[in-house]
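> @MW can you paste both from yesterday?
MW: sure, first one:
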Amino acid sequence: TLLQLRPKDQRYRLQHVANLVEEGQPERAMPHIQMLTTRTGIEYAAAHCWLARQAVSGDPTFELEPDQIEGHLLRAVELNPRDTEARQLLAAVLKARGQLRPAEKHLFDIVDQHPEVALDLAQIMMQLKRPQNSIDDMAQRAADYTLEQIQTNPRNARARIQRSEALIILGQLQEAEHNLVEGATDQRTPEVVNALSTYYVDLAARRMQESTLNREIAKGLVERALRLSAANRRALAVAVTLSGYGLTVDPAALQPAIDELQQADDLPPGDQLLLVQSVLLYGACMLPVRITTLPIATAAVVLIPVQDKVGEIVASKTRAKNA
């Protein structure tokens, strides 16, 4: 192999590590990655970054503690200050740990050469309450960059979603909506459809925060969100909130969301409570239902109004639980 021919070549050794992991031989890969991430003659910045990247993935081969992940990325940047991947990943790790100022600095160092980080930077700047003109400048850079990506590939769902996020920061809400609607209508990209649903829920919550007089507007936005994505739990939660203001969300929009909740396996307590509230507030007659995993009690019997199909679903689940 190339590694045998050039045992001191860091690139070949790291590729050998990746190959062994892919082949399901992590125990053979371990000595090599340790060699590349120990302060020896062949320590390699890219190996530190590789180890940290796999650790934050959904299914890491080598599990690391948060401090270890941060340490590997800091060392990668120390060894190679121009390692933009390490800086970007380090910024994400620092942001997740609440260390916003160092995260901001790492992104500032690379944003001129890598405008794809401009949106992350703008969001961090918002959290740090930087001057609005500086935030707007960074958000505009993000909007311009993502527009170029969309023009190159209109099916680029990630770019379309990020462009709308940047436009929302800029206060260009209609343009943000148009951008998502265009993607959802023309390509029917699932990610864009879900993002548009989330956009409507966020806008509904914003309108309600501005004034409760906007509740009719909020109701319409929630109905649009639910029609786009029955799995949008936040939309269903806002529908429950609106019922407290005497507003009734269209049952045709609610039914698929309630169906989706009812048919899901192993609902967490919060979602079970949301299901109970939804049927309680939008039903008509009464039916006892046993919910056994609510956080407020080991087993609580609640009276739930049910109507038509909703009643059938809840009754069916009740029988299954009692069987």
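MW: second:
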Amino acid sequence: LGLAITLTAISAVFFTKIAPTKGDAANYIAMAEGHDAASPFRFRVLVPWLGSLLPVSAPTALEMITYLSIVGTLVVGYVCCRRVCAGHIPSLLAMFMVFGASATIVNFENPYLTDGFALLAISLMTLALMEGWFLLFAVAGVLGVLAREPLVLVAPAWFATRRFAQAVSVTVAAIAVAAIPRLLAFHDYRAGILRGHPTLKQLLSGAVTSWGVLWVAAALGLLVLAYRDIQWLAASFLATAIVSSALATDTQRMFLFMMPVIFVGTAVMLDRCWQRQRLLVVAFTIACAMNSLFVIGNHLTGPKESSLPGMGLRVVAATLLIVMFV
């Protein structure tokens, strides 16, 4: 909890935020102030409504919700890592690594969106599935859909528990919450989601740069993890990320929804290597940390993602990862 709060607080203070009067942020702020918004934002009612209840300005309220959601997400992710028997130190290192990835950092540039709350919901669904807590899974799923509608694709992950009646009920509930208001204003919603689409190159670039070498680290960890429910979750989260990306041009941000499985998979991989290759794990952590600095620099000053130092650090990190795992 201390590390999660520290990382979030430092980032909240030092990151330069976008102007809250532009783009998607302006719509959510307008909703928090009690005004109407364009489609598809007007259907994502939960976070702006929560923001309207806080005794601060709408932009500040949305920032607070995002930051608290990120802290909650990191804490829940740590609990999930421990649940699959990853050690304390590897779990903390994994928290540090996922926090420094591009997909996470975007939330501090634009904390006025609903992504942070949706990520917390999806993390709680991960923990609930691991523990078999249906009520938490269902509540988090429905609330998550009220923040970001693609989360409806995560609800079927409960079928992994083989409790079919529960799985059908939560899936139907999530679909109903997402579909009914949008069907009632279908033409408006359709026009909103068809505003822009990424090219295949943009989609692939956003996917790769969102988590970088952690894609590989998490995949290796999930391969050695004898926990099949995680595979269902990984498929659901990937579908959520792809659907979200297909309806947006900032594709990198949409792969944020992979964080729970990236977090757990990376922690398992690090735990596997920690007992016998600690120096390599430390070196890998340092390489990831230095790469995060280049990622942050890219967001703050706009250098090209393919800058030579950044590429070199990613190659070093990938090489260390392969050596550790083998």
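> thanks! The two ends are 32 Å apart (CA to CA).
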